Write the structure tokens for this entry.
Amino acid sequence: MSKVNLKKLASELGVSISTVSKALKDSYEIGQDTKKKVLEKAKELGYKANPYARYMRYQKSSTIAIVIPEMTNSFFLQVINGAESIAREKDYHLLIYITHEDAQKEIDILNHLQNGRVDGIMMSLSCTTTDYSHLHACINSNIPIVFFDRICHEIETVKIITDDFASGFAATEHLIQSGCKDIAYLSISGNLSIDNKRMQGYLEALDKHNIKQDKRRIIKCTNDDKSNYKKIKTLLTGSKKPDGIFASIEKLALTTYSVSKDLEIKIPAKLKVICFSNLATADFLNPPMTTITQPANEMGAAAASQLFKYLDKKGTEIKNENIVIKSALTVRGSTL
Amino acid sequence: MSKVNLKKLASELGVSISTVSKALKDSYEIGQDTKKKVLEKAKELGYKANPYARYMRYQKSSTIAIVIPEMTNSFFLQVINGAESIAREKDYHLLIYITHEDAQKEIDILNHLQNGRVDGIMMSLSCTTTDYSHLHACINSNIPIVFFDRICHEIETVKIITDDFASGFAATEHLIQSGCKDIAYLSISGNLSIDNKRMQGYLEALDKHNIKQDKRRIIKCTNDDKSNYKKIKTLLTGSKKPDGIFASIEKLALTTYSVSKDLEIKIPAKLKVICFSNLATADFLNPPMTTITQPANEMGAAAASQLFKYLDKKGTEIKNENIVIKSALTVRGSTL
């Protein structure tokens, strides 16, 4: 099938390319009759504006990118769902990139995105990212970045977060009120502000309830599932075992379930477990898992909407703003 | 920061834009000294080729699209993960579109993709799609489509599938061997070939074991969770209750768990459940769920790889081919 472009339309109609182009843009320079003829012919031949040719004219890609650290966490799934809906509504296209928690991959991806492929980026940092030059470079190239969940404090921009401190506090206090006296915190990365805030909430709740803080109860996990399994197993086989675990992210709670199953430690009788999670199956787990549920879909939609606010008014400088969407505690069998 | 483009490089070096462009393309027309100077200056100023300008020169977007029906199924999650890895390897970009099982959304998306935004598409049909004109239109516009999982038989192309018939047969035979005598099949959509093949496998296994087929045992579910809940509840409260359920997709098995919990029907004592699923939490469910596990990551990677095979040799006509990657039965507590 031969390509239907402006040239082809112009030749079919016997007018200039410029006339066709202006007619399609509804320019005041072109009469109504001509406009009607051009639109009819465009429809008849199935003309579709080429996005690359459009970009060359308007310097607008109508594309945004979402950069996420992993695909096994149900939180990011729901974020993508929320972001994609808003992008479709706005007639934008959504590129997806996964860093797999690898700082170098994140740098490579951001470097690739500086060349105009996208109008803006929404992202959540990898847990190994410690240097932020690649983020500054993007912003210096006039590609706005909106953060969600795993934000970068150093960058002045819009950040969509949940109330990590308050939720970390509430999770820990819930364990205490359920009878726990010795609570361990499973950290995913000291580099991540969400992790630090959740841990601060944990420490604050211990303090409020006069439970002595113990650094050995803060377990530094990583992105390596096997190593996490070992660390949690060591924690749960020591001479002094915790009676409660607060996992900063979903997969650490699932590893805790796995270790408990293998060691035949009964949850919640011997060990109570709570975590940040958006698992659709939390209700059906054995036992059902008490979670701090983040408004993931809303956070994805909010991040996309905020980005579009700035893309709609190109040239507006993006303001530093933290938008907090609250999480909710859902009590289930793992802490009863 | 002012934009570094060919013009800027040319002006900095005091040469023509054409010289810069040819030097960057390593043209034989340009001397080694000049090439070296251009490359050094490009690096110094942080020049990055604009993808849209590149497209206008080479008619290649370096972008593919993945179109999936929903984001709640862990199968699609893993497919995206597999496809993204291959795309990154190939230095391609991946656009994501979700049809939410809505045929009209699928049509709109495919129509949008006919204009050169992507070089190719990998997709899984929505369960409400019954007309395929939008797929033919894409292929007629020289945008190849590779299908995975939910394929369209009518289109001559590469289709990445699993052994749905054999797996449906194996799932049903496993229920029979576990003692089930009255097995219901939960269908997600009569429009989908995967659903039909799984059901054919189910019927064949009943036949082999001399169990009479009963149309009332084939429950036609939809994309509406509430309506599915009601249908499954009706099935499980009738005067004659099935003792086994084979769910064609994950979410129907989870709804079965939900109904069973509410009706206090013990799984597996009173009802055995098996389904096609890639749930990471299958092991931790109450009871752990027996699944037919699809090689989702591999299927995503294979679909992307097959698409690239054709994109690498532009102009090659895509062959009709079914590539089968086998699923595996994992027996867990729900059928013991």
